[in-house]
From TrEMBL:
The lineage of its organism: Bacteria, Pseudomonadati, Planctomycetota, Planctomycetia, Pirellulales. This is Sigma-54 dependent transcriptional regulator. It comes from the Bacteria. It comes from Rhodopirellula halodulae. The modification 4-aspartylphosphate is found at residue 56. PANTHER family: SIGMA FACTOR, TRANSCRIPTIONAL REGULATORY PROTEIN. Residues 7-122 form the Response regulatory domain. Residues 147-376 form the Sigma-54 factor interaction domain. Keywords: ATP-binding, DNA-binding, Nucleotide-binding, Phosphoprotein, Transcription, Transcription regulation. CDD domains: AAA (cd00009). The keyword Acyltransferase does not apply. The keyword Transcription applies.
Length: 454
């Protein structure tokens, strides 16, 4: 049985190799074309669609297989290329893999091995297509990798994540502590072509300076007191995946130089070692500080900032996305009631208004911890405002006197409070509430969903 939708092009200057591969792979594809030179191969590649190219390194004519591989990948970055040669060396294999080859096979060819690699190439392509479909479905759902938000500010963050996730560009995420910067980093990883690789997060602010170099780059046995064995660092652990450097602005001047050198050269050595190691990671960093101010006072290198900040993403504070607070509370209630085996709880309207108006200096992390505490300690089914933590209650006067961030936020806050008050007075009877508000039931239903007034 042939596999439709996986056309193959074979490029080799030996007729016997071309015909042998074509016959041997007839069950692996519905279309197999051959070419005797790189130039002919390029011509056929331009005139038809091929998902896999099998090419010899040494070809008659002016272009070899490695150059052909580079040109094919420029035309179609999704095409898989298997390189074959009778003169297999480590250097040739390295050159082929660096140029983007899917695999490298030495002659004389083992047809079973070739078939196996062709199937792997096909499976790899199908997996990428499935990942792309998953990315599209996640994006359409308005929720990315456990990041929940419907307000305009979060939709803008979602849009940026979708735009840059599939690229290799370094990203710097800025935002207050607890706002969800690591979740954004994980979303960038989950929606990227590196999603099958590891996601390694390291908090540079919590790392002693004496251990930071070893943590990032690893060390050899005996390289310092206590180094009883060889240990790979974060750059090795994250190979093929994403390395998330949190609180990157807390690094010392020396560590900043070391990081900049690795970002520029894509190479490093372990502490106490001599072997140069190639790094294959995507670096995403985060900070809760104003980097331009740190550059101005000399505590952070400007050249490192430009390396890390190719794509900036600003995560809004919870105060800037108050519309999302009811939605987040509902999500955390469901999560923690299930986790701790508690019956589902509800937030009374007055309590919800107080929570929406609170200042939340700890952002989403503070909100999450508070909801878990309420789930564990509260015995009733409905949580009233006087049962909220004291710090939330005490913050209400300041929150009430605080000016909204914009006119639209002021209008939405007023609308939310009015709808909540009318719903409470009408015992959440939608038709009566809609009449009192002078809107249709459908409009009221939409507004209730928007403001989390269930």
């Amino acid at each position: 049985m042939t596999h439709s939708g996986f056309p193959i092009l074979i490029v080799d200057d030996e007729p016997n190799i071309r015909s042998g591969l074509k016959k041997g792979l007839v069950k692996e594809a519905d279309l197999i074309e051959t070419a005797a030179s790189a130039e002919e191969g390029l011509e056929k590649f331009h005139s038809a669609t091929f998902h896999l190219v099998i090419a010899d390194v040494r070809l008659g004519g002016g272009m070899d297989g490695i150059e052909l591989l580079k040109q094919l990948r420029q035309i179609d970055s999704d095409v898989a290329v298997i390189v074959i040669t009778a003169h297999g060396t480590v250097e040739t294999a390295v050159d082929a893999m660096r140029a983007g080859a899917f695999d490298f096979i030495s002659k004389p060819l083992d047809l079973n091995l070739v078939r196996q690699q062709v199937r792997k190439a096909r499976e790899h392509r199908e997996l990428r297509q499935e990942n792309q479909s998953l990315r599209t479905r996640l994006a359409d759902a308005g929720e990315l990798s456990n990041i929940i938000g419907q307000c305009a500010a979060m939709q803008d963050v979602f849009h940026q994540i979708r735009q840059v996730a599939a690229t290799e560009a370094t990203v710097m995420i800025q935002g207050e502590s607890g706002s969800g910067k690591e979740l954004v980093a994980r979303a960038l990883h989950d929606l990227s072509d590196r999603s099958g690789g590891p996601f390694v997060a390291v908090n540079l602010g919590a790392m002693p300076e004496t251990l930071l170099e070893s943590e990032l780059f690893g060390h050899e046995k005996g390289s310092f007191s206590g180094a009883s064995r060889q240990k790979p660092g974060c750059f090795e652990q994250a190979a093929g995946g994403t390395l998330f450097l949190d609180e990157v602005t807390e690094m010392s001047a020396k560590s900043q130089v070391d990081l900049l050198r690795v970002l520029e050269s894509k190479r490093f050595t372990r502490v106490g070692g001599e072997q140069v190691i190639e790094t294959d990671v995507r670096v995403v960093s985060a900070t809760n500080k104003s980097v331009p101010e740190l550059i101005q006072d000399g505590s952070f290198r400007e050249d490192l900032y430009y390396r890390l900040n190719v794509i900036p993403i600003e995560v809004p504070s919870l105060r800037q996305r108050r519309d999302d607070i009811p939605l987040l509370i509902e999500h955390f209630l469901q999560h923690f009631c299930t986790r701790h085996g508690r019956p589902m709880k509800q937030i009374a309207p007055d309590a919800m208004r107080a929570l929406v108006a609170a200042q939340w200096p700890g952002n989403v992390r503070q909100l999450r911890n508070m909801v878990e505490r309420l789930v564990v300690t509260h015995t009733g089914d409905v949580i009233d405002s006087d049962e909220l933590p004291g710090d939330i209650q005490s913050s209400q006067p300041a929150a009430a006197n605080a000016l909204p961030a914009s006119l639209s936020e002021a209008v939405e806050t007023c609308e939310r409070e009015m709808i909540a008050a009318v719903l409470a007075e009408c015992d959440f009877h939608r038709e009566n509430s809609a009449k009192r508000l002078g809107v249709s039931v459908r409009t009221l239903h939409y507004k209730m969903g928007r403001y989390g007034l269930h």
